[in-house]
Amino acid sequence: MAFIMVDVECDGPIPGDYSMISFGAVLVNDTLDETFYGQLKPISDKFIPEALAVSNITREETLTFGDPVAVMTRFRDWITSVSNDRPIFISDNNGFDWMFICWYFHHFLGENPFGHSSQNLGSMYKGLMKDTFKNFKHLRKTAHTHHPVDDARGNAEALLTMKKELGLKIKW
């Protein structure tokens, strides 16, 4: 299996009404050297300025970003190129990140290479620690900057630590 850590930045809380403006992905392996970064032009006139401000990107900048069909096609092709078998979507907040990635794949390409399921990094850590109050974020090495590749890399580093130092049984 190929675990692909994903992070999404958006201009609002739900896909369709609002837009995914950027996302990053990191193939989880020992080197974390395979990454993808996509920037997408808005699909709606609606946006929440505070949501957009989190990414330090202006609405005007987003209007110059790539066509969603082209960006999602490139992402699908990248996933295929780094996966020898079934790709596994994993993120810090899979309820949010998965919602956007899944919707964009199905809406623009008619398919999702990840299938119908995703994994939540925080839940994995809570299970490993046997404590629902534990948080994995101290395991990140890369600063959480709200640049989606940085954030995906930091989360992938945490997953590697869970495997190498905390005994998580996971194979890629």
From TrEMBL:
Coiled coil: none annotated. One of its GO terms (molecular function) is nucleic acid binding. GO terms for biological process: DNA metabolic process. Residues 5-158 form the Exonuclease domain. This is DNA polymerase III epsilon subunit-like protein. It comes from Chitinophaga polysaccharea. The lineage of its organism: Bacteria, Pseudomonadati, Bacteroidota, Chitinophagia, Chitinophagales.
